Amino acid sequence: MTHFLQIHAQMIRNLLFEDSFAASKLIEFCAVSDSGNIHYARKIFSQISHPNTFTWNTILRGYANSPFPRPSLHLFNQMLKSGAKPNSFTFPSVIKACAHLAAFEQGMQLHGFISKSGVDYDLFSINGLIHMYAVCGKTDFARRLFDTSCQRDLVSWNSMLTGYVSCGLLAQARQLFDEMPERGVVSWNVMISGYCKSGDVDTARKLFDGMPIRNAESWNTLIAGYAKCGLVENSRDLFDQMPVRNIISWSAMITAYAQGDRPLEALALFDRMRKANLKPNWATIVSALSACAHIGALDRGRSIHLYVDQSKMKVDSIIGTALIDMYAKCGSIENAFRIFDMLASKDVFSWTAMIGGLAVNGHAEKALELFSQMEGDGVRPNEVTFVGVLSACSHGGFVELARQHFNSMKLVYGIDPQMEHYGCMVDTLGRAGLLQEAVPFLEAIPVKANPVLWGTLLGACWIHRNAKIGEYVGDRLVELQPDDGGVYVLLSNIYATVGRWDDARRVRVLMKSKGLKKSPGRSSIEVHGAIHEFYAGDKSHPRIEEIYLMLDKIRSRLKLVGYTPNTSPVLFDVQDEEKEHAVSYHSEKLAIAFGLISMEAGVPIRIVKNLRVCHDCHTVSKLISNIFSRDIVLRDRNVFHYFRDGCCSCRDYCNRDGANRDNVVARTITVDKWGHGNFRSVQEAIDSIPPNNKWWIRIHVAPGVYNEKVRIPKEKPFIVLEGENRRTTIIQWNDHGNAITSCTFALFAENFVARNISFKNSYDQISPRVHGKVVTWAPAALIQADKASFYYCAFISLQDTLTDSQGRHYFKSCYIEGAIDFIWGNGRSVYQACAINSVARALNGITGYVTAQGRNSSAEDTGFIFQRCVVYGTGSTYLGRAYGGYSRVIFYKTALSNNVVPEGWSAWGYTGHE
C-alpha cells in the first residue's frame, strides 16, 4: 500500500489522474486486491468526474467482495442515475451484495431490472440469482429460476443444493444430489455438511466414505459434525487419519475438545499446533480462550492474549468477546472490563459477555448499570443478554427488578423466555428465600418440566433449611431423574441440616440400593501455566505428601481460632473423627493446600470446582484467607467466591439458614418527585413499609432535590436507601435548634444502608461553640441506631453536619462538609476513603473543628476511626476537640492539608480535657 500511495501522488503531481483508464487501475488495485483499501478506493472514485462503466464495475466489485457490501446497492443506483450503462459484468457484483445482505426485496427488483434491460443473462448472473434467492430462504424462487434456465453448470446445481441444505430441506437436497449429472467435491461436501447439521452423522459418514475425491473441507466438515453430536473420539480418529491438515482442521479439532468439556486436551492440541509453526486463526484463538475460561486457566489465557497482541491480530468484537469471557470466567473482571472498554465497536455479543461476566463475579449493580447503558446506546439485547441480566438480579438479591426485566422480555423486546430465563427466576426467588412463591412459579412454566430448574429450587431449600418444600421438590426431581445420585445426596443433606437423621439415612440407603453415586467433586488449579486437578480424598498427585502436610498445618491453625468441622452432610454411622476426616479432604481443600505450597506469597489462589462449594469448605476458605493472608478465588458451579481477610464476596449466601436474611432484597420501592415512581416523597415510601419488617427493602430515589425532613423510626429496620448519584439525588431541609428535631435526616432503626445520596441542611447561620456561648445545631443527618452503612453519600451543613450519635456505623467514600463539630457524637464508627471538607473560612476568623467525639468513660467501646481519608478546605481548623472526658478519634493514613492547625486538637477550654 505504501508503494501505491507513492504512485498515486506521482499521478496527481504529473496530472495523469485525468486519464480515466489510469484512474480505474488505481481503483482496481485499491478495491479488489488483498493489499488494497476499499475506503481509499471510494475516495479516489469520488474524485473522478465522469467514471465509465468499467470504473463503476470495479468499485461495485470491490464493495461486493468486502465485509461492507451495502454501498454496492447505493452505488448501483447512482450509476443508473449518472447515465452509465450496466453490462453483464455489473450485475454479478450487485447480486452478490444482495446475497451477502440477504436483501430479498432489492435482489428481486434487480432480477426484474435485468430482465427488462435487454442485457443477456450470463451464467454468472443466473447462478448469482439462484444463490441469492436460496440465501434469503426463497428456495421456491431459486428452483423456478433453476428449472427455467437454459444454461446450467455445476455451480448452478451446487447453488441450488446449498440453498436446500441451508434451509434444512435435506430431502429435497438429497433428491437434487441424486439427479446431478456430475458431482464435484463441493457437491459432496454440501450434502455431508447438511447431514452433520441435522445430527445424522451416520449418513454423512457413508457419503464421506463414498466420495471419489476428498479435500480438506470434506475431512473438516465431518470432524465438526462428529463433535456437534458429542462424538469427540470419532472426531479425533478422523483428524489423525487426515493426509494433510490445514488451519481449519486444527481449529475444528480444538473446538471439538473445547465444546466437548475436554479443555485440557483442547489446550494441549493448541500447544502442539503452535509447535508445528502453524499460525492460529481467529476461530482457533476463540476456542483456546474458551478452554481457558472453562477451567479458569488465567495464566494460559493471558499467554494467548499476548500472542494475539504480538502477532498483531485485530482484536475485533469476536476475539474481544472471547477475551472478555475468558477473563471474566477466570475471575479477572478488571481485565475483562479493560478489553470491553478498548473495543472500537461493541456488538450485542460483547455487551452480553461483559454483563454476564459482571453478574457471575458478584458485581450485580454494575451489570445492571451496563445493561441500561447498552439500551441507551441503541444495542438491542438478545435472549442471552437477559440470562446475564436476570443472573445479576439473582446474585444481587433484586427480586422486584428481576420480575420487571423478565416481563419486559416479551412485552418490550418480543423475546419468549426460555428454560435459562425461567431458571434464573427460580434462582432469584430461591436465593431470596421465597420458596413458597418459587414452587407455583415453576409449576406454571409453559414448557416441559426441566430437572435443572427443580434442582435449583432443591439447592435453595438446602440453603434455607426448608425440609418441607425440599421434600416436595425432591420427590418431583426423583420422578424426572430417578437415576441421578446428586438428587438423593442433596435431599439427604436437607434432612440432616434440620436434624431429621432417620429420613437422611433412609434416602442414602435407597440411593445405595439403586447403585447410584453422586458426581465426584473435582477442583482444578493453575500453577505456573500448568493445570492440576484434584478429587475428594485424592492421593495421586506427585506432591501429595507435601499437600497432606500442609493440610495438617491448616487444621492446626484453624483449631487455634475455634474452628470445628461441619460434618452434618456425613450421615453414615461412623465416629466423629472419621466424619471430620471425610470433610477434611474435599477437592478444593487439596487444591488450596497445593496452591499454598506452590505459589509465591501474595499471589491469589484461583480454583474452579465442578460442584457447589459445601458449607465446611466455604468456612475453611474464609479462615485460610485470613490466617495465611492469601486471597482465594473459587468458582463453583454457580458463582465466584472471592475470599479475602476472612470474608467472602457471596456474603455467606451458601452458609445462610432460613433465619438469616442478610443482603437479600425482597422488594424495591421507587420514589420520583415528578410522579414516575411509587411515591413522590422519601418519607411516604418509608411510611409505606410495615413495622418490624424482617426483609431488606430497597427505596430507590430518582434524581432531584427532595425538600423534606426524613425520619426512619426504630420499628422500620432493613431499609436500603439509594439514589442515582449523590450530586443529583439530594434530600434537603432548612432548620436549626434541637439536634433531633432540626436534622434533615434522622435514623433510629437498625440494619440500614444508604448509597449514592446527599443529605443537606441549608441553614447557614453559625453559632460557634465557644465555651459559655449559646449553641445552635443544624445537622444534615442524625444516626442514632446500630449497624448503619453509608456508601458514596454526602453530608452537607455548616454546624454539626453529621451527628454520629450512637451505634456501629461505616462510611465508605463519603463527602462530609461543615465548619463547627461537623462530625460529632459518641458512635463507634469507621470512615474509610472519605473526603472531609472544612469550610471554616465562613467563621470570620474563628477556628473550626472537624470532630467532637463524646466518649465519657474508659469503659465505653466507642470512637471514630478515619482511614485513608483526606481533610482539606478553607480557613483554619482543628482535627477535633475533646467533647467528652475520654474522647477517642484516630486518623490513620489520612492526608491533611495546610488548613489543619499544627496543634491538631483542642481541649475547648475544659479543664482536665487537655
Automatic annotation (TrEMBL):
SUPFAM superfamilies reported in the protein's UniProt record: Pectin lyase-like
A GO MF label: pectinesterase activity
Pathway the protein acts in: Glycan metabolism; pectin degradation; 2-dehydro-3-deoxy-D-gluconate from pectin: step 1/5
Record has Ligase as a keyword: no
Domain DYW: 562-653
Stretches forming PPR repeats: 52-86, 153-187, 215-245, 246-280, 347-381
Domain Pectinesterase catalytic: 669-909
Keyword Repeat included in the entry's annotation: yes
GO biological process entries: cell wall modification; pectin catabolic process; RNA modification
UniProt entry keywords in alphabetical sequence: Aspartyl esterase, Hydrolase, Repeat
NCBIfam families hit by this protein: PPR
Protein name, UniProt field: Pentatricopeptide repeat-containing protein At1g08070, chloroplastic-like
Organism: Nelumbo nucifera
